[in-house]
Amino acid sequence: MVSPIGVPRYKGDPPEHKYLCRLGYVLSHNTDNRTPDWVIEHLTPDRFKGPGNREAQGNPFAPDPDLKAGERSELADYKGSNYDRGHMAPAASMKFSEQATEESFYLSNMSPQVGKGLNRHIWADLEGIVRDWTCERRELLVITGPLYDTDEPKTIGKTHVAVPTAFYKIAYDPAQRRAIAFVLPNKAVDKKGKKAWDVLKQYIATIREVEERSGLELFVALPGRDQTRLGTLKSVMWPMRQKCSAS
Questions:
Q1: What is 9-246's CATH number?
Q2: Which of 17, 29, 42, 87 is catalytic?
Q3: Is a pLDDT exceeding 50 seen at residue 247?
């Protein structure tokens, strides 16, 4: 799943972390923050249809069974916090399998995310656009994660789950060797009557910015020249010629 782009590397001394490989994604879970540092999906159009159904499965949010109590977030941490359990790898990209859908609801795949105006709106819009790009381009690798702009972030719950400052999502087209990165603040985004497509343009970032703010080195399996080009180039909004519903 990660071999085309490589496993992201931590710069300097890495935090205590654990790699978790699921049917639909791979992540690095940060023990101190109780959130993932990065989540990688290898998207193809056939992942977006099938037996996986979050409503039918009862939105099965659950603490990660492969993490010990004390190093993971718990359901109680989010209760009354005013933050959503924000998916990094979205359930809507896991419909190909009931197991993949269920695993997407493990809290190790979540970060505290503002709900109204972000998780339920512009962030969900971005996830949908990435799926549409996948249906058009046939294959994308997507890296998603939280950003913390302070060494002592706000926390929620008894296990002190860190609240991110912002979130990043990077889509990479291996056929075209092109990438586009977004950084959205962890707050409500007012679309002011505009289409999500137009609003998201102002949140396009460089991969270098994501690396600097996350403390990660990304796309390490690519040739150095490609790493430099992708890292410094700020993409324009990718065109949309067809949506999944038309594929």
A1: 3.40.570.10
A2: 87
A3: no
